[in-house]
Amino acid sequence: MQNRLLAALPPGDFARLSPHLVPFELERGRTLHEPGDRIDHVYFPLVGVISLMALMENGAAIESAMIGPEGAVGLPAAIRQRTAISRAVVQGKGRALRLSATVLHEAWTASPALRDLVDAHGEGLYANVTQSVACNALHSVEERFCRWILSCHDRVEGDTLALTQEYLADILGVQRTTVTAVARSLQDKGAIRYRRGLVDIIDRAVLEAAACECYGVVRRTYDRLLPAAQRQVKSETSAEP
Amino acid sequence: MQNRLLAALPPGDFARLSPHLVPFELERGRTLHEPGDRIDHVYFPLVGVISLMALMENGAAIESAMIGPEGAVGLPAAIRQRTAISRAVVQGKGRALRLSATVLHEAWTASPALRDLVDAHGEGLYANVTQSVACNALHSVEERFCRWILSCHDRVEGDTLALTQEYLADILGVQRTTVTAVARSLQDKGAIRYRRGLVDIIDRAVLEAAACECYGVVRRTYDRLLPAAQRQVKSETSAEP
DNA sequence: CTTTGAGTGTCGAGTCCTCGACAGTCTGCC
DNA sequence: GGCAGACTGTCGAGGACTCGACACTCAAAG
């Protein structure tokens, strides 16, 4: 069990949910829901990243939050029927478990532990988005680039991310040429290697030094609100060994 | 009753809350809570604005959301004991009703209508913050300035806002000199008049034209999620007469 | 093996905003 | 009345990012 929320459920509560959890392949670029869609399914990533994108009237889309194995997409539908606020897009290949919103709602009604988890997840997500408001206003593209790469790295397997500069430019809400310049600069510093749609993380310490505080703040918020993950595959270099 | 949430409560539910609602003067600049504080009181503005500020490690503070008579500060404490995520600062003189978090929690337990309202408010606030993530990344200072002035105007009495350019620069996360330039430009267009800590709204239509879409998006989101206000003092010019 | 298209590198003019500095002006307080 | 402090106006150099353009390279499909 690799999803932090599901792992935190008491065995009995999980057992009742378990038969309804459907394995779901996360395919890069797939849209799970659009703003205004009724949320019929909730996705618990096991590995991989789903981006919640805010859409502007001119068609621009920018990431408001990233959700990986520490959370779930559409979770507020546990509380009551709900329409999506953001577009949810799969960022890269991965695996998730899918659950019908109605089943989830019934489980939520029955399980205090699940109610607590849904609440904690909502608070964490809110804190995350709040941080991004400030981040987008105050921090440079390079800082935000590093924050994003690190957050993504935490949520996937391996040290290679499949993403183009064009895509990253969208996510960050900047021009592609700016991303190119930043990527080049970080490559020169030995932090990453960029090769045609793939980013290799070479040196996390360099990335952490170049990232804004937002990376650590959000990560620690989730650690505070949600039960610890079984095993931390990657750790902040500043943390205890 | 001028608070939209309280006004939406069924009479019986409100009656049970009513004896515990304490009138509270909103004094400009007063801090209601800091991040990490336990939320002991919830504030329902009747008139006036409270800013939720995200704090950075270097001391910078930038607004993540504005709360007025359409909402409440600290409302999630209704669900369970909670620590504040943002700093809550009174933006300008006004009035509110204050409620103990424990009383609110008991009422929340007893009243399905209140639970729905808390949930709807949370969703609206989340949507608001999400919009601001995109806004801060994609929109010019002038657009954001106008959005902010309009949002504020909706939530106070009269057409004059008490705020300095320095304060506004903080809120928006930009330099004061930039605010000065933008204010000057809008004054030249006849949208506002700026005089030493006071902004007169002269022509809302001009402001709405110069504001980014975020103003209308957030406003309509609240209208969709919360029961209509009794009387709309100020309306979007694009709305029906 | 060749073609096509996606992805990247680069250039340069232009704009928006920063950042520090300083002068001027209004308000409230003594 | 006059002083102190808060607030606003202005200047200018510089940096970060935009925006359009184009050439190049790699990978996959035929």
Describe it.
- The structure is a homodimer of 241-residue chains.
- The first copy, chain A, has 241 residues and is an alpha+beta fold.
- In chain A, strands 2-6-4-5 form a four-stranded antiparallel β-sheet. In chain A, strands 1-7-3 form a three-stranded antiparallel β-sheet.
- The model of chain A is unreliable at 237-241 (pLDDT under 50).
- Chain A has helices at residues 4-8, 11-17, 101-110, 112-138, 141-155, 165-172, 176-188, 204-210, 214-225, and strands spanning 22-26, 31-33, 41-47, 50-55, 61-67, 87-90, 94-100, 160-162, 192-195, 198-201.
- In chain A, a hairpin with a 5-residue loop joins strand 4 and strand 5 (61-67).
- Chain A is globular and about 55 Å long.
- In chain A, 43% of the residues lie in helices and 21% in strands.
- In chain A, helix 3 (101-110) packs across helix 4, helix 4 packs antiparallel against helix 9 (214-225) and helix 5 (141-155) crosses helix 8.
- Chain A is built from nine helices and ten strands.
- Chain A has two domains: 4-111, Jelly Rolls, CATH 2.60.120.10; 138-225, Orthogonal Bundle (Arc Repressor Mutant, subunit A).
- The two termini of chain A are 24 Å apart.
- Chains A and B meet through strand 5 and helix 4 of A and strand 5 and helix 4 of B.
- The structure holds a DNA duplex (30 and 30 nucleotides).
